Amino acid sequence: MRAELTPRNIVNVSCAADYLEMTDEYGEDNLLSKSESFLHKNVLRNWKDCILALQSCDPFTPRAEKLQIVSKCLNALSMMVCTDPSLFGWPMMMYGRLQSPGGSILWNGINTGARIRSTESDWWFEDISYLSVGLFEKLIHTMETRGIRPESLVGAIMYYARKYLPGLGRWQSGQSGKTRTVASFSLTPAAVDQKVLLEAIEKLLPEKKGKSFCRFLLGLLRVALILGVKQACKDSLERRIGMQLEMATLDALLIPTYSDSDTLYDTDCMERIVHHFMTSESRVTSFSPSLDLETSPSSEPLRKVAKLMDNYIAEVASDVNLKPMKIRSLADALPESSRPLHDGLYRALDIYFKAHPWLSEREKEELCNVIDYQKLSIDACAHASQNERLPLRIVLQVLFFEQMQLRTALAGCLHVLDTESAPAGHMMVPADVAGQIVQRDGWATVVRENQVLKVDMENMRSRVGELEEEFGKIKQEMKRVTKSHSSLSSPRMVARKIGCKLLPRSSDAEPDTIDSTGPTPRASIEQPRSSRHSRHRKSFSLF
């Protein structure tokens, strides 16, 4: 009978013919030989047919592997991916148009010479994503042995994972774009167990570093914590992230807690990642023990991670359920030399104190011990010296170290000025001293401005003191005059008390003449009153 063979049923027919032993021993050109001939002449030479044949292998995988159908299809796909398409004699369906191996559009099999857009390196990602997890894993291993670039393999793995793991796409910025397909036919997505897929993806991923790859790993870790995969898989993902932690971003590191913990974020996971980072850094620095950690090139990732860690602590510090010991352990996860400045750590602790006002002075002091106050900038010292949330002892320490910094900077500034004023012929400045002078230039400017402000404030303070002293003297003198005026009735006693001497008038020098004229009582009363007012005017005019 005549059997109609297609890429969709070739695996079924081949497995059935093998099971029924329909070989040429029982009949010439039997079904098994026909199916093998169709597989080699038609299926293995076409990308679309290989994908369809592999997709139909799932129900018969053991027997299809025995007949080497799976391995043949995988090798054919790998060869098509890693080889220049112009070397093949088969047309490709790309974006719904038929084109020649060289990329020219075909019309009725004739090369028209018209070119279309060059194919991208990820043109095959979408098609192989329809394979099951097992076949996809075998295909990646086959492509790896064929010498396909690791970047392309990682891209295919990330594409496959993003397709079947919901929520993973948002952690791959710039990766989602227009779906590209070569086969241009409808395929049924594979039925995938997400836990099995994630564990398989983790094993397929190479030891690679990169910003997008690190973000992808953090997204995988989030999904792994949600799905509850094996602990070995989670440990491996944390180790991979720790090896490239300097390339991570803060939003990707803020992993929520998916367990019964009271905290908002999984700080234990972050602490383990930092531990893996320090382990990898210790292996790197162990080969060069003579290098200084502050100046060696390997310290740059450490400084980046320290800054990232300070921002992470500041972000999680607002969680009211976060314990002080967890903040302390996160801050102590990195060595002291990793932070050239402790401004970020101070900011994180300030946020924590603001969100936890019920902390005791002892707990605050224990947390503040992680800060090296000699590494605070001038702005941070100024803020800390006026921070009411800090314990009083810590504020005093900040003020002390601030004065030490100003004195050191002032000494360096004076040294620079003395060096500049020295004669050029006698100036012998070593290289290390010159480097220190260059580093102090910024401090010198700040110190000059600070000294000018201090002088202005001292002048203003002394002027205010003088004005207060003068005001006090005037106030006391006025009180004394008022008291004397109220207690003494004679104006001459007031003038004598103040220290003034009044000259007698002619009317006062001849009292007997006035009395001999026989004045009236009214006139005798008015005369002393007028004399008293005139004496008061004379006495007060002396002020």
Provide a brief overview of the structure.
With 543 residues, the protein is mainly alpha-helical.
Q: Can you characterise this structure?
A:
With 543 residues, the chain is mostly helical. It has 24 helices and four strands. It has a two-stranded antiparallel ribbon with strand order 1-2. Strands 3-4 form a two-stranded antiparallel sheet. Helix 8 (150-164) runs antiparallel to helix 9 (194-204). It is rod-shaped, with a radius of gyration of 46 Å. The protein starts with 9 loop residues before the first helix and ends with a helix.
Beta-strand share of residues: under 5%
Q: Give the integer mean of the pLDDT values.
A: 76
Oligomer: single chain
SS class: mainly alpha
Give unreliable regions as ranges: 85-109, 111-119, 173-178, 285-297, 424-441, 505-543
User: What is the approximate shape?
Assistant: rod-shaped
Largest sheet: 2 strands, antiparallel
Order of helices and strands: HHHHHEEEEHHHHHHHHHHHHHHHHHHH
